[in-house]
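Figure S4 source data
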Amino acid sequence: MSNPQQLRYSKEHEWLSAVEDGVATIGITEHAANALGDIVYVQLPTVGDTVTAGEECGELESTKSVSELYSPVTGEVVEANQDVVDDPSLVNTAPFEGGWLFKVRIAGEPEDLLTADEYTAFTAG
C-alpha cells in the first residue's frame, strides 16, 4: 500500500491535497478504506457547511461498521463528491482519485498533518 507523497495525512486516516487557490481536497486513506471493508453508504458535509479540524463532519458505513469522518482542516465546504454518494464503492477502489470526499476553502494553515512517510510509519504501528 503506497501513500501518495504529495498529500498530507491525519492520524484519523484522512488525506489532504495541496491547497490550490485556498481550496484543498479531502478523502480517506487506502489504509482506512481497507480497514472499513466494502463501503455501502457515505454521508458528507454539504456545500456551505463549516468544518473544524479534528471534528466529525460525516460518516462512512461499511458492511462491517459505521465510521465517523473527521475534517483534517478548518474551513468552508465548497464541494461534496456526489459520485461517492451515488457509488460509495469508489472510496474502496480509488481512495486517492475518484473516491475523494469533499473540498474545503481552508481558513488558516493546516496543522499536525503527517507526510506520506510519517503516515506510513504511523499505520505500521
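Figure S5 source data
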Amino acid sequence: MARRTPRRTTPPRPAPAVSAVRADAPCPCGRGDAYGACCGRFHAGEAHAPTAESLMRSRYSAFVVHDEPYLLRTWAARTRPPRVEFDPDMRWTGLEVTEATDGTLFHTTGTVTFVARYTHGGEPGALHERSRFEKEDGAWVYVDGTFID
C-alpha cells in the first residue's frame, strides 16, 4: 500500500524578515551588555529570564529581532495568541523601563511599566504599557498589558 502524504490545508507563511543583531552588538533592551550575553541567551534557550523585568526586556528584544518562537514560548498559556504578526514598517528604536513592582526570584507575580519607542513608516511614536507577569512552571511569562496614555 502506498503511503499518502498529508495535504496542507493552509499555505505556509513566509518567515518574517529578521533584524540582524550580532552576538557582540549592544543588546536592543538597552542594558548595555552584548546581545549574546544579555537577551540573546534567553532567545537561544540557554537560560530563563530570572525576573519579570528581564523577561520584559528580552521580549522587547525579541520584537526587535522578530523572534516569534521566543515570544510565544514566554507568553502565558491562557492568554497566548496562535501567532505573532510583525509589521514590516515598524522599527523598534529604544526601551525605557519606568517602574518594576515585585517580579523577583522571591515573587510569583510582577508588573513592569515601560516606554518602547519606534518608528512606523518613518514616523516616530511610543508605546507606554504596564505589563503583568507571573511564573508558570517556575519560569516568568507575560500575561497581558494595559496601555497608558
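The radius of gyration is 17 Å. The helical segments are 39-43, 52-65, 68-73.
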